[in-house]
Amino acid sequence: MSAARVLLADVGGTHVRFALAAPANTQPLLGDSIRHYHVADFATFTDVALAYLGETGAHPHNGVFAFAGPVGGDEVRMTNHPWAISRSSVRAELAFASLHFVNDFAAMSLCIALLGERDVHVIGSPGAPRLGATSGQTFAVLGPGTGLGVGALLLREGRMFALETEGGHSAFAPRTDEEIEILRRLGARFGRVSNERLVCGKGLSNLHRALGEIHGTFTESLDPEEITRRANTGTDAGCERAVEVFCELLGAVAGDFVLAFGAWNGIYLSGGMTPVLLPWLERGGFRRRFEDKGRFAERLAQVPSIAIVHPYAGLLGAAAFAVQDSGRALVGPSTVVVTERER
C-alpha cells in the first residue's frame, strides 16, 4: 500500500465510522476527516461509503475496513446486522487499488500501539504497561458494545500480531447463587447462554430483567441507556444493581481471557459502554472478580486493566493496520512509535 491517503471504516452493528489515514505520518489518523453514520439509514455498505466520499470530496485509492464479525474469504456477514459485504464487489464499486477487510477486534488490538496517555485510564493498582518494554508481550482486548468483542495483541521481536476471535460467544460461567439463577432464566429464553447475552448493551437489559424477576422488583423493560442513566442518578435501585453485576461479570470474563490468552502484560477494555461505565468499574467489583481466579489470584492481581477512552479507537486500529501494511513498524524493541496523539 502506498503512502497516499487510505480510507478507513469501523463498521459496527449500530454505527459505521469513516476517516482517512496518512500511513507515513507519525499520527496517521486524520482527526478532521472522521464522520459517522447509522447503518440502518443505508441499504448497503457501499451506499454509505459513497455518501462519505461525496460529503468529504476525498479520492483515496486504498482502504482498510474493520467489521464487527468474522472476516474470511471474500464476504463478510455482520454478526449484529443483516449486511453481507463482498470485498471484491466493494473494491470494484469504489475503484480501489487495494482493499483490506479486518475483524474489528483485530483492529482494536492494533490501536494499542497508537494510544497516547490521555487515551487510556488505568483501573486498579497495577500501572499501565509500556509496549515493547520486554522481548515478548501479550495483551487481551475486551469490548462491550452492541456485542462483546474479544481480541488479543502479541508483540514478538519487535513485530506486532493481532488475533481475531469470536470469544464473546464463549459460554457464561456463573460464580454466585444469584448468577446461577440468572443463567437459569436466560437459558429458558435463549437456550445456550453466551457471555455476549450479558456483557454488552442488550446484555445489560437482559441482566436488568433477570435480576428484577429474581428479586421481585422488575416492572418494565429498559434499554441500556436508560438503565445506566437511572443508575448514575441513583433513582432506581434495580438499575444500580444491574450495573454493579454487569461490571462484576465484565471483570470475571476479562480475567478468564487473561488466563486463556496468557495475557500477563495487561487487558484493555474498549467498546462503547466502557467510558460510560468507568465510574462503576472503579468501585471495586470489576477488579475483585477479575482477580478472583483461585490459584492464579496473586498472578491476576499483578495484571494491569486499562480502559480505552479514545473516542475512535476502531478507526485508530484501522489506521495502525494501514501503517503496518505500508511497511512501517508500529513498535520497536523498547519503545512505542506514538506516545501522544495530536489534539
Could you characterize what this model shows?
Strand 2 and strand 3 form a beta hairpin. The C terminus is likely disordered. The radius of gyration is 20 Å and the shape is globular. The protein has two domains: 122 residues, 2-Layer Sandwich (Nucleotidyltransferase, domain 5); 191 residues, Hexokinase, domain 1, CATH 3.40.367.20. The protein has 343 residues and is α/β, with parallel strands linked by helices. Strands 8-13-12-9-10-11 form a six-stranded mixed sheet, sandwiched between helices. It is built from eleven helices and 13 strands.
Classified by CATH, the class of the largest domain is: Alpha Beta
Q: Which blocks of ≥5 consecutive residues have pLDDT under 50? A: 332-343
- Strand residue percentage: 15-25%
Strands across the major sheet, in which order? Answer: 8-13-12-9-10-11
Structural class: alpha/beta
Q: What's the shape? A: globular
CATH architectural type of the largest domain: 3-Layer(aba) Sandwich
Report the average pLDDT across residues.
90
CATH topology of the largest domain: Hexokinase, domain 1
As for the number of domains, it is: 2
For the CA atoms, what is the radius of gyration?
Answer: 20 Å
* Fraction of residues in helix: 25-40%
Helix-strand string: EEEHEEEHEHEEEEHHHHEHHHEH
**SS element count, helices:** 11
Q: How many beta-strand segments?
A: 13
Q: In this structure, how is the largest beta sheet organized? A: 6 strands, mixed
What's the end-to-end separation, in Å?
A: 27 Å
